[in-house]
Amino acid sequence: GCDCSGEVFNCPNNCSNHGICNHFTGNCQCTSPYTGPDCSQGGKTCPNNCTGHGVCNTTTGICSCVAPYTGPDCSTKNLTCPSNCNNRGTCNHQTGICQCNPGYVGPECGGINCQYNCSNHGQCNYVTGTCYCDPGYYGCYCESSSEERKAKINFLDTDENNPLTWGLFQLHGNSCLNSCSNQGFCDVQDSCNCFEGFDGSDCNKAMIKIN
Hints:
The protein is mainly beta. Helices cover 2% and strands 31% of the residues. The chain is rod-shaped, with a radius of gyration of 44 Å.
């Protein structure tokens, strides 16, 4: 006959009616998709197995996502940007990088960009948005060159005893009216500075000395 002297073990929770109890070991042999010591787990699966970015609750079928991932299957990355881009740009939540609005720069869009990049002739103060021009350049955006506006001056005669030619300059490339009629010099403000004895906006008037 049968040997019934062996000890019989019961399984926990009778395997929750989701498996077969091995009475010799007291262990459940769960029916798929149930798992666990009493086959009470694994009744539900989570979408996309939480995409590898979370833990699936097999009782509810809901993912518990690991930051910064969100969404039903934890597939959406939700990174935050530094200082929320100072409200001067848009946060890319996939990368956590600010996409700054025009006129602003920096990881947090906290800097004010200088217009025209200071014409590549200066340094930008991103706090104020002001250009600090390199030597020889000026203007709000360092767009002007002092050398370009300076007249190239050649002395024709420096004879102090000849009042007609003393200090006379020949100007090349200036932008003063009528080149100051060759009777004056053009300054960097494009204004004529007439020689002694001449007057007018272009130095074309001879001044007559009355004794």
